[in-house]
Amino acid sequence: MTPPRSNRGRPRRLPRRTAISHRSRDEDPLTERWQARHTALLDALTASGALSADWRGAFEVVPRHLFIPADIWEQQATCVPVTTDDAWWDLVYRDVPIVTQVDDGHGDGPRLATSSNSMPTMVARMLGALDIAAGHRVLEIGTGSGWNAALLAQRLGSENVTSIEVDQVLAERAAKVIEEAGYRPGVVCGDGARGWEPAAPYDRIIATCSVRRVPHAWVQQTAVGGIIVAPLAGDFWSGALVRLEKAADGTARGRFVGGAKFMPMRSERPRPDAPVDSGTGRRGTPGPLPLDALADLGFALYAGARLPGVVMADGTQDGAYQMWLHDRSGSAATVNAQETWQYGPRDLWQEVMAVYDDFVAAGSPGADAFGLTVTSEGQQVWLPPGSQGR
């Protein structure tokens, strides 16, 4: 095992400025049931293949509920507050994300989720993708509740884990509950887009918020041969997990390893688009293209490269599957199985159908066929020549 470095250059522990309401398993009469819920969740994660044997032990000794605050929300059409103890425990040990902050902590907002504890399946998948080994030094971008940092500290030792969080209140709360759980990783408040240079280089970097572009600072702060695991958000696709390896030439390159929807880094929250002129509406028919095929991550990655700036969303409205498209300049389209409506100067639906034809001609490659390269000049999504479908 590589000897741990000294703490010189590591972030100082954050001060405990705020008393945090936290549910201890010794304070709640319902907690006598947490062990069974906890084991059932881990068994399900293991059976699905998300939780590997290497990580099972850490998950067993670092239970999720220790990091979930008393006030939480369930993400439905809106954020719905959890108001009873039984509902609190039920949500904590379900395989779902938990909203742990709304409206950046302000009490008079529209209840927009601004921080969450990730879905346990996703936590296990991302930690597994890091491929960590004893002695590795890890930087986590987005401390959030602190659960992820504690799991890393359990595997690697607290001295090898640094976590950065942009929200001062969240950072302080996470540092407190992580310490109460028995771990002392470095927790620092700062802009995760810049990484954390004082403790670099890192063998692994993991982000728990989505970015549109992988910051080059992360690449610079990763040791050669090191791994970066991050959720990437595009316009046409809502989120994908990418795993990159740092090369000797200073670039990072790797493949997409599945879908991953995360809250955006705060500096990358979406801005308002140009308004759409509803008076330009043009009705049409969708044609033979199966709508749900457009939601496939492989096609979304392909279309995202071909149609930069075009945003796609899908869902059910009035009991029917529907797709929404728009660009940033006032063009839009709504599509269901019966009809299309297009607005603005572009015929977005025709553009998407043309790109889908090219995608099929290329062999309908799956998401894992696509890759990403990050350099000091930016990033590029690529598809190897001759790559074929699933």
UniProtKB/TrEMBL annotation:
Keywords: Cytoplasm, Methyltransferase, S-adenosyl-L-methionine, Transferase. It is an enzyme of class 2 (transferase). One of its GO terms (cellular component) is cytoplasm. InterPro entries: PCMT, SAM-dependent_MTases_sf. One of its GO terms (biological process) is methylation. Its main location: cytoplasm. It comes from the Bacteria. Residues 7-22 have a biased composition (Basic residues). It is found in: Cytoplasm. GO terms for molecular function: protein-L-isoaspartate (D-aspartate) O-methyltransferase activity. It holds the Pfam family PCMT. Residues 1-31, 263-287 are annotated as: Disordered. Its EC number is 2.1.1.77. PANTHER family: PROTEIN-L-ISOASPARTATE O-METHYLTRANSFERASE (PTHR11579), PROTEIN-L-ISOASPARTATE(D-ASPARTATE) O-METHYLTRANSFERASE (PTHR11579:SF0). Belongs to the methyltransferase superfamily. L-isoaspartyl/D-aspartyl protein methyltransferase family. This is Protein-L-isoaspartate O-methyltransferase. It comes from Streptomyces himastatinicus ATCC 53653.
